[in-house]
Sequence to fold (640 residues):
Amino acid sequence: MTRARQDRVLALLVRENDWVTAATLADVLGVTPRSIRTYVTAVNARVAAGVAIESGPLGYRAGTEAASAQRAATATDAGTPRDRLHTLVRLLLDSPDGIDVFEAADALHVSSATLDADLARVRGLLGGTELTLERSSSRARLRGTEMAQRRLLSRLAHDEMDAGSFDLVALRRTLGTGSIGARAFGPFKSDLVGELGALGYYVNEYGISDVVMHIAIAADRVARDRGLGAAVGDTKPAQAEIVGILARLTAEHLGVRLGAGDLQHLATLVLTRVVAPGASPAAAARERLDPDIEVVVREVVGLAASEFLVDLVHEDFILRLALHVQNLVQRARAQAWSRNPLTRSLKSTYPMIFEVAVFIASGLQERLGIPILDDEIAYIAMHVGGRLERSRRADQLLTATIVCPGYYELHELLRSSVDRSLGQAIEVVGVETRVDPDWGSIDSDLVLTTIDPAVAGDRIVRIQPFLTDADVERVQQAAARIRRTRRLARLRAELERYFAPDAFVRGLDGLTEDAVIRRLGALLVARGVIDDDYVERAIEREQLSSTAFTDALAVPHALGMTATRTEIAIGIAEPSIPWGEGRVQVVALVAFSEADREAFQTVFEQFVEVFSERDSVQRIVRRGTGFAAFLDELVAVVDG
Fold:
């Protein structure tokens, strides 16, 4: 556990790329600041020269040798409990007749009691894998199908990899150093992606990396005489194309001849991770689509658009999402889930988009009878985000008036330059060519002026007659400042309406997620805002996907907006408490009513934005000792 926490501290600092206080790191990990200092010392000891983690008055930050320390961690993991566990699993998987417990203990240089404890941990890994661990006297043996054993290897490999991204070094730690190396897999992956592109496929790079991991596992198992055997059923034409490519490339680059069963299985994985053919018209793409799945997707998307008041009902979007869901159904049936390294960032940066994706995933899960994991929800969020980005661009434009006294066509050239350089951020609605314009009558969001204005204001930006890069940057900064100010002003007005003094709790020590939701929910039930059913549905929503949208904030809520009015119950945890795969310090149980649907995006997305800033979180948590103090600090942070 200590080594894992050291790695977590280092990973957090690398991700932040800035100074982070010991107290903040301690809150994230659920330890004391003194422990953080110990972890930093241990991480720095991994590198002989240089500094992996820098220390200073502002706390800690990743140093010049941070990457070297991360690589050193992987190289020195041998002998750690996790490495020993993975080695033990490999021994069991490679030995159809089982292993001798005492011989394995000697080989791993541990006592038989330690190995018994490790076997108990192996049993803990087998839940839901269709594998069982049998123990008879001194022998231990895994029972289950070859496919189930490969899924176990896949799980171990993902545990070794950071954020689900493909890491061949981590994969070789799972499969053993005798497995296929990077020198072979680099060209293999490049050729595979190239040939799939030549067939007209858009390749999901995240998905294809996951497929390469499965190919590595298959190659390793076949090399050990553990192939899948014969193909099952008829091979479809699209499958046959992929089978031919895989057979040729694995023999050429990996030196392994895969059997029919392995090739069919891997071809299916490739096809379920490849987007619809890029060059094909919609009619051709629809030919590949199961009509029943299209009907379900169309229904669920329509409900999501109505529930969240967003523009999703578009034929191109529905077709692409339906093709993705068709692949998702096949992955669910094969239990071959696709990891998404963007899951954490999508959830924290675009909480509203992720929430729409959770709603869609819930509807698909109910109607199609398949489980949908967080990483798969993130892929749906990528589809949703792409669609909403197209429909929201016009709403994000600010209006601008150019003030440029007339001299030949100078004002026309300036307007053309503004449109070309800033057209995606602002819309020019007027041009004043007088040297003494009526400044008070200009009501656009921004005023871009080449002369000194008679009045001052944040919306007025001084620019040159011939637009420079510095001018463009100043206008962009002013536009961003105005948008943020307006968003936070709306948020402040909404938050002051939705908080109540008797829906505030400080101190959540020792409570589970469900218990926290029930405790906060009881406060809103007592106020007549929601009923007990809403609380239970909020717990069900939490089971779909964790509502820990940042490293400090969880926002549990039910999917349906059935509250009598919109209100927020706040719980402050100091120290932090476990939530999902991380820890949080603030829990905001949100009850939304049907009448306040339009406020949902403002409150939800901007509230998460406030708590994504570490300094703001620490200020609110430390000083918000009571409801009044909490609200004062929150409003102060919103006002900047």
